[in-house]
UniProtKB/TrEMBL annotation:
Keywords, sorted A to Z: Hydrolase, Nucleotide-binding
Source organism superkingdom: Eukaryota
Protein name: HIT domain-containing protein
Domain (HIT): residue spans on this chain: 24-133
GO MF annotations, alphabetized: hydrolase activity; nucleotide binding
InterPro entries reported for this sequence: HIT-like (IPR011146), HIT-like_sf (IPR036265)
Gene3D superfamilies, per the entry: HIT-like (3.30.428.10)
Motif Histidine triad motif: chain residues: 114-118
Provenance organism: Piloderma croceum (strain F 1598)
Length: 170
């Protein structure tokens, strides 16, 4: 009885603490140290603070969405728009198609709990950095194999079929 009560108190304390931490990506502004390269009412694109590749940007929806795991088929258009925007930015930077990587980290391997698409122009600055963004093709009916990174196209195809993106093959 006592331990149950204690457990509940701890849970509530944790929820309170989490609720009081402002979301970093809900507060993207130059004042907060972000280098914004593009924005409209829906999305904002900014430079990654620790670039892993020659070009490394992030695109986030301004609306708070937890992660790629929270997306479903109704989000396909949004992901498509993010991918298009990412490719337009890479066009401007002169990055050839074969040197582009766009995609999402899958929880718990994401850094910030606000959906962000990594937009990269390769090469990677080091082999170790590149290891964080593996694209693993799926076998059989799977669009994606076991990995902690979901490429934009894989994400779109999984969502279109009514699936959801996870670490395991989907
Ligand atoms: Zn947020
Ligand atoms: Zn990430």
């Amino acid at each position: 009885m006592f331990s149950f009560f204690k457990f509940r108190l701890q849970t509530e304390a944790i929820q309170l603490a989490e609720g009081s931490i402002p979301c970093k990506f809900c507060n993207i502004s130059p004042k907060n140290g972000f280098k914004i390269v593009w924005e409209d009412d829906t999305f904002v694109a900014f430079e990654d603070i620790r670039p892993a590749a020659m070009h490394h940007l992030q695109i986030t929806p301004k609306k708070h969405i937890e992660s790629v795991k929270a997306l479903n088929k109704f989000d396909v258009d949004m992901v498509r728009s993010m991918e298009e925007l990412g490719n337009r930015i890479l066009d401007d930077l002169g990055v050839p198609t074969a040197m582009r990587k766009l995609g999402f980290h899958i929880p718990p391997f994401n850094s910030v709990n606000h959906l962000h698409m990594h937009v990269q122009g390769l090469p990677y600055r080091s082999f170790v950095r590149g290891f964080k963004y593996p694209i693993v093709n799926g076998g059989g009916s799977h669009q994606k194999g076991f990995s902690w990174f979901a490429e934009a196209g894989q994400t779109i195809r999984i969502l279109e079929r009514g699936g959801s993106v996870g670490i395991f093959p989907s």
